[in-house]
Amino acid sequence: MKNRTIIYTIIFLLGIVMPSHAQEYDVQCEDTCSHVHGIDMSHYQGNVFWETVGDNTKMSYVYLKATEGGDRIDEMFERNINLAHRYGLKVGSYHFYRPKVEQVMQLENFKTQCLPGEQDLIPMIDVESMGGLSTEAFCDSLLKFLSLVEEAYRQKPLVYTYRNFYNKYLQGKLDDYKLMIAMYTDEEPVLADERDIIAWQYTGKGKLTGVSGYVDKSRLMGRHQLRELRFRHH
User: Fold this and answer.
1) What are the φ/ψ torsions at residue 198 (nearest 5 degrees)?
2) Residue 229: which of 100, 78, 60, 84 has the closest Cα?
């Protein structure tokens, strides 16, 4: 009986302490600043309740994974883009780049999903892997692909990558492209070459009502505005 009393006492105390701690943990960047915020989504988030996400006015835009490499299509893309539009978010599409896969094949794959008429934001290319290539071969491969994307959509894509990856492999290579940089710290990212950064993905473990599990969250940097990422419909 004594042990049971102790257990109940501990549970009671935890019930008092834990909510306060949980509330503190849930304070996120968009709760404490005035920047323009957004998210990116893929099949990893499963079935998203977009009507709930749309009601969260702190989120202005979403980049949706459309494709990867030469033949992979994100299984949730069509549903996500339709519902994200329906519930009021500005939408862009992204492609996960595979350096060893032939560039034209990757472009054709991306074009099957990233339809100009459905885009509010310029295409984004997700660059995270060298695919085992040398730095020179990797950069040649990437720049060729970016050029093909620009030609197809008649505007330069946004390039997403991690700060350390950029510093090690991409300095001086992407001067003509807008950058979204991922770095999961409290301090804003600064690149080794001090390149301008239009958007910062500040967490891969964000929480959002309407989404189960973690969400990648980003925000625009400095005085950058969402109109700078607007898809130009020619």
Assistant:
1) -85, -30
2) 60
Within 10 A of 162 (CB to CB), how many other CB atoms are there?
Answer: 16
| In contact, 14 and 180? CB cutoff 8 Å | no
121 contacts 229 by C-beta, under 8 angstroms: yes
d(CA 72, CA 117) in angstroms, rounded, equals 22
Tell me if residue 8 falls in helix, strand or coil.
helix
Q: At what angle do helices 103-113 and 135-153 cross, to 10 degrees?
A: 40
Alpha-carbon 217 to chain mean position:
7
pLDDT in tens, the chain (234 residues): 545 444 444 433 444 333 333 333 344 565 556 689 999 998 988 788 888 887 765 789 999 999 999 999 999 999 999 999 999 899 999 999 999 999 999 999 999 999 999 999 999 999 999 999 999 999 999 999 999 999 999 999 999 999 999 999 999 999 999 999 999 998 999 999 999 999 999 999 998 888 888 999 999 999 999 999 999 998
Q: Are 163 and 183 in contact (CB under 8 A)?
A: yes
CB-CB neighbours of 121 under 10 Å: 22
Instruction: Give start and end residues of each alpha helix (H) in the chain.
Output: 2-25, 29-32, 50-55, 77-86, 103-113, 135-153, 163-165
Query: Which pairs from 217-220 meet CB under 8 Å and 24+ separation?
Result: 217/28, 217/29, 217/30, 217/37, 217/38, 217/39, 218/37, 218/38, 218/39, 218/40, 218/180, 219/29, 219/30, 219/33, 219/35, 219/36, 219/37, 219/38, 220/35, 220/36
